[in-house]
## 1
Amino acid sequence: MTAQEANAQFKVVVVGQVARDLVLQIERMPDDGGSVPVQKRQELLGGKGANQGVACRRLGADVSLVGVLGDDQAGHTVLAQVAADGMDVNGVVIRDGAPTALLLDIVQPDGVRRLFEDVDSRVLLEAGDVRASEDLLRSANAVLIQLQQPAAAVTAALDAADPDALVVTDGAPPDNQTRERVLRRAVVVRADVEETEALVGWKPADLTETIEAAQKLLEEGPRVVALASPTGGNVVAWPGGHVVLPFIEEEPVDPTGAGDAFVAALTVGLLHGQDPETAAWWAAVAAARVVGKAGGRPELDLDEIRQAAANARRR
Amino acid sequence: MTAQEANAQFKVVVVGQVARDLVLQIERMPDDGGSVPVQKRQELLGGKGANQGVACRRLGADVSLVGVLGDDQAGHTVLAQVAADGMDVNGVVIRDGAPTALLLDIVQPDGVRRLFEDVDSRVLLEAGDVRASEDLLRSANAVLIQLQQPAAAVTAALDAADPDALVVTDGAPPDNQTRERVLRRAVVVRADVEETEALVGWKPADLTETIEAAQKLLEEGPRVVALASPTGGNVVAWPGGHVVLPFIEEEPVDPTGAGDAFVAALTVGLLHGQDPETAAWWAAVAAARVVGKAGGRPELDLDEIRQAAANARRR
């Protein structure tokens, strides 16, 4: 039995951003008024929601996406890409008259990237968009919710999830009321350094403070807290313990989507009944696989990740 | 009689680049690893050939474009835009399996722009592409040729133009043999500072040297030479005289396409029987109209430009 077959029972719904992702690789940035040739162009499915969805799918889960596209040509192209990547599109809303979000990712040879985000407010989720997918959400084993979406949509997703579902939130809550709801309901809370500040009220300056922040958040309800450290790498904490995950990529090409693969693999690991520390190592390996490739859409193989995670952990 | 009607007899063929032009306006460039929101996104018809063609069309000429698009979705979108802008598309080649050129134009509030050019060699013109439009070229009153295209295509265009046609070249010749042919055949030669170096063998350091370079080029055949000066503005020279054109834009927004409007208006002015000095003032005004607007596709009105040029000249 392959990992994918073993895993087919897991239903994951991702609530978040779906976008066009235009990735341009260049040798160097042009000066003011200057021009540079593009070494490589890719036009991909993108956005945090789609990236997390693709990663969960590649790790073997059944994935439904809940997000909003414009009714432009790009929207229809992106919708076809979501379907081609094996995800269910019934929760994807095509909004009349709105432009599909565009993420432009300019990547240099050393893996340094610059992101230009064009996200019209009309392609953010509304509570009604989420409620229209209530049945999907209620039947999911895991619900991944991006907190960059408006508060009403986040709340609707938290409310619709099954009480036994693994609710995973990613990012900073849009307001204090939503923060309370998130910490009360989420099983897993994931944040980068800036987002951690929004969650705990102060910005961790080092690894020790990141661990402190994770422990403080655990006291408010979540069972697993995963925070990026300002010193690089990630901390994953659970009641009574934590692990510090180093960056384990070899040749960084493009950090886009590494955080999304981290969340996806952490979720899938926990769905597989792994303890938080093991799931955290899966997450670190999945993130490393993404950073080695331009464009935020990783090839991921669960068996390979499981093995690489065991090896990385032993070191 | 409107200017457009008076002008309808002029047939202009533009031989050069046709592309998608993605224009993003931002407040500031992101740092390494950072992200910024996009203030405004435009997806336009672009490329020097298309920009010069649109400008000639808006100045009232009948315009045919000779250029190459890919057979992708973008190519078909761009082709429709060329037609919607009132240009003849019979000379536009759709190349099997090639990606349509993408120009990404990132513009800041002060009008500073950075250009990212993704032009696959397969969407450059081949001699056969140009020869397939021989009848178009032979019947044109003016032929605008971009010297960024391969030597064989440039030569084919020079050869196909009617002996009485106003042949206008823009840019630096790809090699020395092409340089000889260009200077022998072109009536008008246009170049920026870098391109002037390729034409005369040295780079003008100031206005005096730019005038010297123009006079040297006039000795080799062209009747009008238009060179950008490193000190800003342009020099237009003819046997026995020259004029220095200042930049006359008020609020610079995006310099994209200003040089293309300059060439187009200079060409249309000369077709209208204006002396080089008058045509040069038309060109300077047309360029100013473009710089005041993002995206390189100006609204141009011949009567307004004629009047504004007369006013600017009087100052």
## 2
Amino acid sequence: MTRNDSDPTDGEAACFEAGIKFGALYHQFAGTPVSPDSAPSLETAIEESIENQPFCESVTVDILTEKLAAEMDHEYTELTGRFMEVEIVVDREGCEVVTRMEMEDGYPLMKVESVR
Amino acid sequence: MTRNDSDPTDGEAACFEAGIKFGALYHQFAGTPVSPDSAPSLETAIEESIENQPFCESVTVDILTEKLAAEMDHEYTELTGRFMEVEIVVDREGCEVVTRMEMEDGYPLMKVESVR
Amino acid sequence: MTRNDSDPTDGEAACFEAGIKFGALYHQFAGTPVSPDSAPSLETAIEESIENQPFCESVTVDILTEKLAAEMDHEYTELTGRFMEVEIVVDREGCEVVTRMEMEDGYPLMKVESVR
Amino acid sequence: MTRNDSDPTDGEAACFEAGIKFGALYHQFAGTPVSPDSAPSLETAIEESIENQPFCESVTVDILTEKLAAEMDHEYTELTGRFMEVEIVVDREGCEVVTRMEMEDGYPLMKVESVR
């Protein structure tokens, strides 16, 4: 096949894959009932679940249990972006993309840190 | 308050709570990427997550890894009712309800086993 | 089959079904991006989707768009219990159960209103 | 700030955004109860919901109702990638990315069609 100018580069295709993992992670698990006690098992399950997806090298999830404990009115709350920091590394055809989600201006911002 | 004839009994209120847990469990976690390797961490996370909810005594999730391995085309698949058996026990105001989900006629059937 | 004392009554079985619909509705759609403009189509989709489930007579969803508009920091937010009121009517073997979710003490409370 | 060689290009950042929308769409709505009758309202709700997200120009969802009707055992089934085709267009800082999901080899493949 001839390559068209509008075809994605390797970097663009790898960043698309990284985005898919982030959207999947967030919308699969947002809303899950979580407490400081149950946070560790949820972190592990999210990591191992998303690592199943194609091109996914590693997923690291940190549920912010102190913030969780401070903000929950009852004995648990629902997981949302405010309560977690996530790093996802994708490797597709030799192109490695490091991506991260953390709070910025009160909003869980997902961004690409590096493409190599 | 006077009790109306149409008010729920303790057994009815407890069964409503048990149903909520089942619907929550199923629709929160259906669609999660899962493989035989990642099934154990997902089982634990589902159990501990739903046990956070009010009146929930215990949740037992068994992901059917042999069936999973036999049916997945790629290295993982999406969790659905076909791949799990679940028991949820609710205790509300002294009324204990045991409920279960398992396949029946090719359909993941949720049912009340006992109300005591 | 002989009926055991611990078998569910018709009312208990109907309340279990109503609970399933509530848990399903909440955990399927919590986290959905929503704005005042997109709220009407989401209300309709939630209603028609859950009405597909067995024994489900009617589902009425009211997304609180004024509250949504007041609380969102950006142009949209994620749907959660704070932003909706829901009524679900189940009819199973002639037993009709009316259930409702609305905010109570800052928490989206689901309850059985009547069993007939 | 100095630009590092490993910083994402505009095309890479736009493809990351497109991926997020795809992962979000899939994992928010997979598992939703759907029938041929309720498919149109669900299509509209998915489109309007994801179009709320940043940089999202347009979302087009086609639920394959004939396939749905042919494969469902009961009066409804759960939405999954097998039953829908999706196009998402993202525009970020003047870079337009067209992405698509459709079945390929029995698997719902998401891909970048063009970056301009």
